[in-house]
Amino acid sequence: QAAQKGGYDTFMEKEIHEQPYVLSETLRGRVDNDVRMDELKEININWEKLERVYFLACGTALNAASFAQDLFRQWVPACPSFALAASEFRYGNYYLNSDTLCIFVSQSGETADTLAALQLAKEKQAKTLSIVNVLGSSLARKSDCTLYTCAGPEIAVASTKAYTTQLVLLVCLMIALSEKLGCQPKDVSKLMADLKRIPEITKDMLAQQEIVKDYAQCLKDQKDAYFIGRRLDYFSVVEGALKLKEVSYVHADAYIAGELKHGPIALIDKGTVVIALATQEEVASKTISNIEETIARGANVILITTQYQDTHAFQKVLRIPDVHPALAAIPAAILLQLFAYYGAVLKGCDVDKPRNLAKSVTVE
Ligand code: G6P
């Protein structure tokens, strides 16, 4: 096992550090002046008639799916899209027909709830597309079309590299779909240029690991942590909170920054750990002023933001580089994964095999 860990202490640490490589593998041949996604031809659908899109997944993959739903809504506002926990899909009486596209996201391609959602979609003649990491897995075999993340084997129970490769592939897919539907993402040329830079950007994030390790010390005597963000940042902090609770057993909740004042702020006291993400320029300053409210109540805040925000009110700041807002979730994920990892190490947890969790859940 030590040899398999390639010099790292744990598989989780190794897999976090593999991200520059696996992201470039996942992007290989996909991005030029345009996004290349020939696999979409395998779906027998009249794109002009597409009525709605469902994103279905579980766990970390559901957080990637929710992120994609938000992008699709921004870029293709006329076509309704919904991200749903696959475990809920069969019981919700959702509208499905042959002009519906169901997109399944899964590392293993074997999660029972996601397979059951696929089964229902097929029964209702919906079109099916899977984003999967494991070659030839059940989801891949049973879908009309499969896009593979090239994350390689993910051994640690907590998903890291599978998640960021899902994000980058979903961004590519959302660009491809928006073009098919006659829409275009904002600043598409910057988006294309930044997609190619993603492996380099993730390397720069990993170089900040010692600072993150130092900031993670704030979890030492804490049982709780609160993660805050708006818009796309909200889905990133939901995943950041999931990662922390999975590996460190710190109770972690994620909130929409604008909702803080409607309840969660009651939980903030002297020393409460708050991790705030403010990468979306349109709303970043609003998130920052919400977080200043928590500082006024004694919170111990770590702020992750862009190069441009005024952060004079904050002592612990991590910066992500200038990148298209649709891609900011990837560098942010690296920092949040490192934070969860070092938090778990600090607490002496078995990082690779958290209690009660399985890598792949094959029961409903
Ligand atoms: C389990 C794992 C999670 C994973 C989820 C979905 O709960 O512990 O890390 O996100 O299953 O797995 P999948 O293979 O479908 O992505």
UniProtKB/TrEMBL annotation:
Its EC number is 2.6.1.16. GO terms for cellular component: cytosol. Keywords: Aminotransferase, Cytoplasm, Glutamine amidotransferase, Membrane, Repeat, Transferase, Transmembrane, Transmembrane helix. The keyword Transmembrane helix applies. GO terms for molecular function: carbohydrate derivative binding; glutamine-fructose-6-phosphate transaminase (isomerizing) activity. It catalyses: D-fructose 6-phosphate + L-glutamine = D-glucosamine 6-phosphate + L-glutamate. The chain crosses the membrane at residues 326-345. It is found in: Cytoplasm. The active site is at K359. The keyword Membrane applies. GO terms for biological process: carbohydrate metabolic process; fructose 6-phosphate metabolic process; protein N-linked glycosylation; UDP-N-acetylglucosamine metabolic process. It is an enzyme of class 2 (transferase). Residues 36-183, 215-354 form the SIS domain. Catalyzes the first step in hexosamine metabolism, converting fructose-6P into glucosamine-6P using glutamine as a nitrogen source. Homodimer. This is Glutamine--fructose-6-phosphate aminotransferase [isomerizing].
